[in-house]
Specification:
Elements (H helix, E strand, L loop, with lengths): L1 E6 L11 H6 L1 H11 L3 H6 L9 H19 L7 E4 L3 H8 L5 H16 L4 E7 L3 H10 L6 E7 L2 E7 H6 L1 H6 L4 E4 L12 H12 L10 E2 L12 H10 L4 H10 L2 E6 L5 H10 L3
Parallel strand pairs: 1-2, 1-8, 2-7
Antiparallel strand pairs: 3-5, 3-6, 4-5
Helix pairs in contact: 2-6, 4-5, 4-6, 6-10, 10-11
Amino acid sequence: MATAFLFPGQGSQTIGMGAELFDQFPQRLAEADEILGYSLRSLCLEDPDGLLNNTQYTQPALFVVDALSYDARGADQEVAFMAGHSLGEYAALYAGGVLDFASGVRLAKARGELMARVTGGGMAAILGLAADDIAAVIRVANLATLDMANFNTLGQTVISGPAADIVAAESAFKDAGAKRYVVLNVSGAFHSRYMKDPAEQFRVHLESTSFQAAVTPVIANVTAQPYEAGQAIDNLCSQIHSPVRWTETIQSLIEQGVDSFEELGPGRVLAGTVKQIQRGR
């Protein structure tokens, strides 16, 4: 039996996440609070100012909860691979020995701040259409401002682009046979061409970070393949403006003998995608 640990990204946050972890790892929590300049316990457990769903705050909070979930899980079994969805990839890199905890907090903070500055964008999840069919609709309906952002399962793809264009495109995809078209509650066109400027600004932060060779292989979102030495900066920079190849990631892990997937972090969104991909959906 081969096991892969999976770490969720933005969208999995929920008030109350991390409650037991913060008590279990007070030194880690204090370290993160010092880097961030605010109380993660207050943000995650109470969210008094309504900031938890703000990208600037969501991303470092999720990294910390994902990372501490791994620490709490312990090393009582051999793990063959680590993988994370979007922001979750940073926790996967931490668990894989590529990134230390403090560096992960700093990068999540910088990434969240830069991505939060990009406004006017939107995203929508399309259910019931294959990725090739979605690409065809974009081409035939002349939806040239839209990009494919997340390949989550064979039957669920997220598109990204200007907010007004995302809303206006619904009828084209419904006419093509989409079962559902869900406009997501985001402020930016994440994982699209519109994120290239913040991605390049983020490179400065990546270049000042020390990355180590992976102790456990980590799958990259942009390639759906394990990280190789020297790839971290380019992979993480490209990840911001490139699609998340999650379906390929899970398919590749299955082909490499992984038959057990364990999601570490809030929610069970990724576990659901794994089941759908395993069923060919």
